[in-house]
Amino acid sequence: MTKLAETIQKFSEQxxxxxxxxxxxxxxxxxxxxxxxxxxxYICHFLEVENIPYRKNIGGYGILAWVxxxxxxxxxxxxxxxxxxxxxxQEQNEVEYKSENDGVMHACGHDVxxxxxxxxxxxxxxLRNEFSGTALFVFQPGEEQSxxxxxxxxxxxxxxxxxxDFIVKQHAYIDLPAGTVGFQVGTIMASADEVHITVRGQGGxxxxxxxxxxxxxxxxxxxxxxxxxxxxxxNPFNPMVLSFGKFIANGATxxxxxxxxLAGSLRCMDEEERRRMLEAIPRIAKSTADAxxxxxxxxxxxxxxxxxxxxxxNRKVRAKVVEYxxxxxxxxxxxxxxxxxxxxxxxxxPCCYYRFGVSGNxxxxxxxxxxxxxxDESALKTAVGTFxxxxxxxxxxxx
Length: 399
What we know:
Blueprint: H1 3-28, H2 37-49, E1 54-58, E2 62-68, E3 77-83, H3 110-126, E4 134-140, H4 149-155, E5 166-177, E6 181-183, E7 186-189, E8 191-200, E9 204-205, H5 215-225, H6 227-233, E10 240-248, E11 255-256, E12 259-268, H7 271-291, E13 295-299, E14 307-309, H8 311-325, E15 330-332, H9 343-346, E16 351-359, H10 379-396
Parallel strand pairs: 3-4, 3-5, 5-16, 6-15
Antiparallel strand pairs: 1-2, 2-4, 6-16, 7-14, 8-12, 8-13, 9-11, 10-12
Helix pairs in contact: 1-3, 1-10, 3-10, 5-7, 8-10
């Protein structure tokens, strides 16, 4: 273990109770996407107490804090990202820091990520005499809901005064034990696009189908026809998922409604394939509706791009984490079709997105996005220390 790793591990132990307090406060006061007012104020107050400079209200309630190294040498800039928003979930955990906001819960670990980055920022600021360059800390709103806080912060000039050489994000992961982290390279998460389709026609009495346009039948066949997007139109070497989870035909046993609404999600692991499929979906929907004498409107809001881990940056960051935690604690996580708006960052900058384990000895916490999700708090030590070590070791070296 390097001397720097020893220093950061001791520092992480020392501030651990404070980081846990931050985590408890954030968990107790969750706020939905784009409503993170109190969360943002809490983090800004922390930064003011620590004398860490920052800008706020970037792309909504987003915050950018920065620490300038005071040592002479090569001036690099690294950025670190943590999400702030919660989910519309009613918490079932019986803990003293249980959510106080009815129907809102940190069920994805964003409270852990923000608390950990607060701790990492404190360590980096305390050791600013030991490195040159700049460490940026991005506290991001709205990861859970389109259009995505990452995109809004970028459009609002989050890096207007800086140019990151690379960007790192860590995310809580229930499939690894606390004290470990997982890496993966390449395209690690899918793009995510919502698909909203409305089918309209002449509704009427179910016993007189010849006098109406059967919108329910048309919509049903649109769902079936959409399966060819995945089975026949995509390159079979590129994973893709198109799922419809919403089908509303507000008629009755003997009433065919005049309109039926569908909603689904398209996930792709290739941006070119994504573009082609987004062109194909309205075409297939329209032609199918036409066959039943109905009209069709398809709305495809701007979604999230794929998350891509830069091979060179991923290798460098992984090597730093091995130095800090040891090879036995650095594992791999599988690629999957979930999404994260960190993809907006990875489209513009070399990036590394890794996961840190949050499961304890008593077993896995409740599933991600579930009402019983809860971490083993020792995971905070790992999350704080790895961020701090990546920053300090990277900004202290000439590679």
